[in-house]
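Dear support,

I submitted the protein below through the web form. The confirmation email said the job was done, but the results page showed an empty box. After a refresh the structure appeared. I'm attaching both so you can tell me whether what I see now is the final result or a partial one.
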Amino acid sequence: MNDEIGDSINGYSGAAVSAASSSSHSSGGKSMCADDPRRRWPAPAAPAAPSPDELTVQQRRRRLRILEAALAMAGDGYEAVNMRGVAGRAGVAMGTLYRYFPGKEHLLVCAFGHWLRDFSTELAPHLVDIDNPYTRVWHTVQRLIDAMSRRGLLADAVARAYVFADASVATEVENVRLQMVEMFADVMGNGAPVERDRQIGELLTDVLASNLPALAHNRSSIAEIRRRLVVTLCLLDKRQRSRTQ
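What the results page shows now:
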């Protein structure tokens, strides 16, 4: 409870400073300090979200509840996700929610990363008996797209979050991208990826990520993303076979 009170206070303190700054500007830019009418309050910087590694066990559990609440709401699409609804579903104060996730795009991108970790964990047992690396990755692509298809509106929500994300979410977007790269590389290298496996992981991830804007604007579909990933993988496999002949 003490953690949540602290989180809530920290979350709201940034909002309070922002409100004070806005009030100063709305009054014609007059300083609140009588000794220097030219002085202006500096624009407050948005507090950085804490890294999961910096959190206590209780705070990590709270963060996990928030992510799972966001994923549940994202199942109804991007527009269905709102910060107040997520806070209510997770059982946390609004200030606490903003302490962990400064905005909706930040929250959804992190939620997708959480979903991807669960997917990778569930995937591993299905690949144990597959020796060919390209076949393993092919199964990974199929299962990934199938999982996203079953939650089509979740895919839409994630795609829109990527499109609408600004520079403040760049770190989270890059973290999820690297997560996908490592997932594909790990599958390709059967748990011991080398540089070429990572290059293939980079390529497949870029194919997926580059199609998210088209998905968000209804210019593409999950089925089309699947097709492009499979075509890319088949071309890589064909090239590798020609080199070994």
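Response: this is the final, complete result; the empty box was a page-load delay. DSSP finds eleven helices and no strands in the chain.
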